[in-house]
Amino acid sequence: MKQNNSVTEFILLGLTQDHKKQKMVFAIFFIFYLGTVLGNLLIIVTIKFSQTLGSPMYFFFLFYLSLVDTCFSTSTAPRLIVDALSAKKIISYNECMTQIFALHLFGAMEIFVLVLMAVDHYAAICKPLHYPIIMNRQVCIILIVLAWIGSFIHSIAQIILALRLLFCGSNLIDRYCCDMQPLLKLACIDIYVINLLVVSNSGALCTSSFVILMISYIVILHSLRNHSAEGRKKALSTCTTHIIVVVLFFGPCIFIYTRPPSTFSMDKMVAVFYTIGTPLVNPLIYTLRNAEVKNVMRKLWHVKITSDSKK
Description:
Elements: E1 9-12, H1 19-49, H2 56-74, H3 77-83, E2 90-92, H4 93-126, H5 131-134, H6 137-163, E3 172-173, H7 180-186, H8 192-223, H9 229-257, H10 267-288, H11 291-310
Helix pairs in contact: 1-2, 1-3, 1-10, 1-11, 2-4, 2-10, 4-6, 4-8, 4-9, 6-8, 8-9, 9-10
């Protein structure tokens, strides 16, 4: 990557400088990351090998949400875990740019998948007779491809802005990963325009998507008055699950990307929840609150255990 400044590496300060606490950070986030990977892989394998979870909600959107959650967490968690036991938490300029690209690629993809899941819910609840036509396999594939393209464009925009920053002083990043906000505070140039572009890019993406999602669920919940009691109960359960995921993801996202690059005491914890906590919580929410997914998991494990015992 083209470098337009004298800085060749950055030093990540991590979550804490206390050696005893660093060991706790290593243990806690190693468990968190392991749980994230195993939980999301369990959902991916369940959907892949299940014959009953073939609807777009599962086969496309929940599948990709779990895949993206795994990648999103992997873009930050392994470095946080390794750095917790490292004397010097050094990240090269190119590695920093790569981490920014991955963080925004998978973060944007998660946003788009959550929006597509809301579209699927709207079609299933408000247009049930036309649902097979509206959300057919070809349409879902096109939507997923467009989501990846949109995520790639968003990430490229972030990298272009990052490469325009000039660093000539401190290289200490008061975070556990590279992102635009902490880099803006280290820049030796006027960052007003770049920060405005970052907010209008990442901030607008988070805020506008959140508003669209909330409006869509207000419309969906309003339409439930015409459904039967059983239909309302099932739809409410599905929508509530999705709304919880949306709030948990977009709350920290909006807090981080819709303000100037100023420092708040809670910034690190909000960033941790956004990049590591949400990918861990998502599989728990979708398995614990989704009876259909839990039933399929039980059946698949029962078949697996039965087949192994007969060998």
